[in-house]
UniProtKB/TrEMBL annotation:
Family: Belongs to the bacterial flagellin family.
A GO MF term: structural molecule activity
Flagellin N-terminal domain boundaries: 4-147
Domain of life: Bacteria
Organism annotation: Blastochloris tepida
Pfam families xref list: Flagellin_C, Flagellin_N
Protein name, entry field: Flagellin
GO cellular component: bacterial-type flagellum; extracellular region
Gene designation per UniProt: flaA
UniProt xrefs under InterPro entries: Flagellin, Flagellin_C, Flagellin_C_sub2, Flagellin_N
Alphabetically ordered keywords of this record: Bacterial flagellum, Cell projection, Cilium, Flagellum, Secreted
Length: 279
């Protein structure tokens, strides 16, 4: 029914213009941001899932850093322990030399053994120096005084790996049982050979424990990297916009906006046409 007091056609055209304009703006914002979810109303459930996944990814990235720090610490400890092992082998060589009855010198066997013992004692002191000076971030790693604990290597508070070097790598000469050794006599040298074998076994055990812990952290770091990759892919499927599909929606919205503008203009001319009937 043609009327002039209420332009129903114009109201309808404007309503569709607003709807199509909102769709156009939404598509533009998604394309510009690259995200399918720019506000909660776009996908409330998807937003909640994406937020949780994103928080897990952030936590896992830090966990990867934690694991790398633990690996670096263990590598530092193993490097120091390797040096201790080398020194112990040299000390065993000196003890074996002093234990031999063939040791002779101008001043006599005991004088020669005193020279050997001088190096032997210096090497003993160097073991203690290595044990106390092998540090990571201010913590001594090889003298039993460091304080360690759990390393967080996941996105949950229970994802922990214990790092307890204080109980597995105390390589001071007293702990190794060589602090009181001397090779200035043949008897002392013979006793030193046996004690040094035990000390070498202790260092080898410590290095094995360090290596085992390092291996576990390395595998965990690889697992974390895989998890970050997979979670990022899952989050992308939820959050990232499909540019091709959204561009198609934008093109459709643009055409609809133009059509609604034309329809509104046409509707606004209808009352003018009706006024001609009054003439």
């Amino acid at each position: 029914m043609p009327v002039i007091s209420t332009n129903t056609a114009a109201n309808s055209a404007v309503r569709y213009l607003n709807v199509n304009s909102a769709d156009q703006s939404s598509s533009l914002s998604k394309i510009a941001s690259g995200s399918r979810i720019n506000k909660a109303s776009d996908d409330a459930a998807g937003l909640a899932i994406s937020t949780r996944i994103s928080s897990d990814v952030v936590a896992l990235e830090q966990a990867a850093t934690n694991a790398s720090h633990a690996i670096a610490m263990l590598q530092t400890a193993d490097g120091g322990a390797a040096n201790v092992s080398d020194i112990l082998m040299r000390m065993k060589a000196l003890a074996s030399q002093s234990a031999s009855a063939t040791v002779t010198a101008t001043g006599g066997a005991d004088t020669m053994r005193a020279y050997i013992d001088a190096e032997f004692q210096e090497l003993d002191n160097e073991i203690n120096a290595i044990a106390s000076s092998t540090r990571y971030n201010g913590q001594s790693l090889l003298d039993g005084t460091g304080t360690f604990g759990n390393v967080l290597v996941g996105s949950d508070a229970t994802d922990l790996i214990s790092l307890s070097l204080e109980t597995t790598a105390d390589l001071s000469s007293a702990t190794l049982g060589i602090a009181a050794l001397a090779v200035d006599t043949q008897a002392g040298a013979l006793a030193a050979v046996t004690a040094l074998d035990t000390a070498l076994d202790t260092v080898s055990t410590a290095r094995a424990n360090i290596g085992a812990a390092q291996s576990r952290f390395e595998f965990r770091a690889a697992t974390i990297a895989t998890s970050v990759e997979n979670l990022s892919a899952a989050n992308s499927a939820i959050e990232d916009v499909d540019i091709a599909a959204e561009q198609a929606k934008l093109s459709s919205s643009e055409v609809k906006v133009q059509a609604a503008v034309a329809a509104a203009a046409s509707a606004n001319s209808m009352p003018q046409a009706l006024l001609k009937l009054l003439g």
